[in-house]
Design goal:
Layout: H1 2-26, H2 29-99, H3 101-116, H4 124-142, H5 146-166, E1 171-173, E2 179-181
Antiparallel strand pairs: 1-2
């Protein structure tokens, strides 16, 4: 009976030692959970801080894209206007030379003198182009370009709004070209 009693006590002691080991392992569980909670809280605070900055970076990128688009549009309009002006000048000077025999003779004489290496005075073709552009300058000073400017602005604003809509920008442009937030 003593042996049975000792065996039973040994089993109880072994079970208690096992429980003690388990308790030693889990004694830091509260502090571990608290540390995990604190880490999670700090992580969310950092994410929130980053979340405040991200829209600013996106807005900056959107504005840069629109400015780049405006620069490209202006360059394209300038090139179109320059090419149209040169085509008009060439056509005007050509028609002027086709209808005036004195200009034809003067151009031929000037060309022959240049080929011969002689100084021939003013080049009538160059003078005709200079005269054309001087007339265009005078006409441009007299003309009211506000309607043309308004039309060009409306076209650019429409293109920018289309891009802003397609790419879900934070802003759109009103008729005057001023950006308005839509977020």
């Amino acid at each position: 009976m003593l042996k049975l009693q000792n065996d039973a006590e040994e089993q109880v002691i072994a079970k208690m030692e096992e429980n003690l080991e388990y308790m030693k392992l889990t004694e830091n569980i509260v502090s571990d959970y608290q540390a995990a909670f604190d880490l999670t809280k700090r992580s969310y605070e950092k994410l929130n801080a980053a979340g405040k900055i991200k829209p600013q970076h996106q807005l900056k990128a959107q504005v840069e894209k629109v400015l780049s688009m405006i620069a490209i549009e202006e360059q394209s309009a300038f090139e179109k206007a320059k090419n149209a002006m040169m085509a008009e000048a060439t056509e005007a000077v050509t028609s002027k030379f086709l209808t005036d025999d004195n200009l034809k003779k003067a151009a031929l004489d000037s060309a022959m003198a240049q080929i011969a290496g002689k100084k021939a005075g003013t080049d009538p073709v160059q003078a005709a182009f200079v005269d054309f552009f001087n007339q265009k300058t005078v006409a441009a000073k007299k003309a009211d370009a506000s309607m043309e400017t308004k039309e060009a602005r409306a076209n650019i604003v429409a293109k920018m709004n289309a891009v802003a809509e397609n790419e879900s920008f934070y802003f759109r442009f009103d008729d005057s070209g001023k950006p308005k937030l839509v977020v």
